[in-house]
Amino acid sequence: MKKVAIPPMIADIIISGILSLEGFLFEDADGCPFCDGELRAHDVKKKKFATITEGGNRRNITVNVRRFRCKECGRLVYADSPFYSDIRMGAPLIDFCLLNLRLHPANHISKILRKMNIIVNPSTIRSLSDFNPGEIPSIEFHEVLFPPSLLNISEAVMKQEGSERNNILLYMLQRRR
The organism sits in which domain of life (predicted)? Predict the structure, then answer.
């Protein structure tokens, strides 16, 4: 197994970005994606973005996602948020796993993430191998590929407030497609 060499500054940038998302509310949505009808607020659902280690203990980082009810068709619609459909982990982490599955086995990717205090089981990483979100840009550091969506979370969160911050995060995620 290869030795994990992640620059501490990179690990700090990523973990501080993930921590800054704790409790953030994603509340922006356009019209209904099914019928283009008008939406009205329904409730707020907590979603787990990541699991990290902090002082030797596991901690779930959760975000809040507003749900809307369509006035026309009655369907439930989620606000725009950094999650892929049917996957219960933040999209930047999924991007990281998918990029590195090209180069490393799932066990090594899990070890790399643990070095950054992020917990993802190797079986979860292996289960992503058939998922294809399209082209994901990347930056390489020490034979590890990082998606800009993961590296830029901290910068985007620090510069923005409220729904402007929400728009910046979503813009980062959409730019990679």
Answer: Archaea
pTM score, whole prediction: 0.83
d(CA 84, CA 24): 17
Residue 166 lies in a domain: yes
Q: What 3-state DSSP class applies to 144?
A: strand
CA distances from 176 to 7, 12, 133, 146, 147 (A): 23, 22, 10, 12, 8
Indicate if the pLDDT at residue 10 is higher than 70: yes
Mean pLDDT of 43-56: 96
DSSP-derived secondary structure letter, 50: E
* Residue 112 counted as domain residue: yes
118 in a structural domain? yes
